[in-house]
Design goal:
The chain has 229 residues and is of the alpha/beta class. It has 2 domains: 140 residues, HAD superfamily/HAD-like (Rossmann fold), CATH 3.40.50; 71 residues, Putative phosphatase, domain 2 (DNA polymerase, domain 1), CATH 1.10.150. It has 8 helices and 8 strands. The strands form 2 sheets. A 6-stranded parallel sheet has the order 5-4-1-6-7-8, sandwiched between helices. A two-stranded antiparallel ribbon has the order 2-3. Helix 2 packs across helix 3. It is globular and about 55 Å long.
Length: 229
């Protein structure tokens, strides 16, 4: 397969791509084993729904507030309401674990001359906590939050913000996301895209299309031509 040419920076979505959002409930023994998967799925689904709905409504609240609102919905839906459990899960979400291949992938990309960055809906505080908890300090040239533009992905303002901060053109950026809707939107915006399809999702029926599809980030470095020096 021909490597993608002309890439100067690799930009990563955070949740589900770099950081495992399922690791919060997985590390919380207070959540009944039989409800952990359901809690993780419903929490994540409502979190994303709230980003899209608030963006459409023009009623912005930051991603930490939406994460709490989504957790409240999920806990009530699964008959797990408990102030102590809520507090514990939110603490764990602030220190999500990175997927096991992430650190080595970032090292390879930086050694090959690529800038690396995160572009996420998460607040700066949330992203800083996850980066530090995963031991990834110094692995990114920039950690960028949609909070800077007060709207969430897939709004074009979020992707444009990343280009301004990196001082690059869309075609010079390779964007990685585990979320199909995010991957397709970044492609429609003009970025080159590698969809990290960790969860075996079906292709989206949306504008744009990924340039490549991989199962995890360890497969990314061989797809990119080294930065010319």
């Amino acid at each position: 397969m021909t490597p993608l040419e002309g890439i100067r920076a690799c930009v990563f979505d955070a949740y589900g791509t770099v950081f495992d959002f399922a690791s919060a409930a997985a590390r919380c023994p207070e959540v009944p084993q039989g409800k952990r998967s359901a809690l993780t799925a419903l929490w994540r689904d409502k979190q994303l729904q709230y980003t899209w709905l608030r963006s459409l409504q023009g009623q912005h609240a930051d991603f930490w507030q939406l994460t709490q609102d989504a957790l409240d919905f999920a806990l009530e839906s699964l008959d797990l309401r408990s102030p102590a459990l809520r507090a514990r899960l939110l603490d764990l979400y602030q220190t999500l674990q990175a997927f096991p291949e992430v650190a080595d992938t970032l090292r390879q990309l930086r050694d090959a001359g690529f800038k690396t960055a995160i572009l996420s809906n998460g607040t700066p505080s949330m992203l800083d906590g996850a980066v530090r908890a995963s031991g990834l300090e110094g692995c990114f040239d920039a950690v960028l939050s949609a909070e800077a533009v007060k709207v969430f992905k897939t709004h074009p303002r979020v992707y444009a913000y990343a280009l301004r901060q990196l001082d690059l053109q869309a075609g010079q950026v390779c964007f990685q996301s585990s979320n199909g809707w995010d991957a397709y939107a970044a492609s429609a915006f003009g970025m080159r895209v590698v969809w990290c399809n960790r969860y075996g999702q079906r292709p989206e029926r949306l504008p744009g299309a990924p340039d490549r599809v991989i199962g995890n980030l360890a497969e990314l470095p061989p797809l990119l031509a080294r930065v010319a020096t």
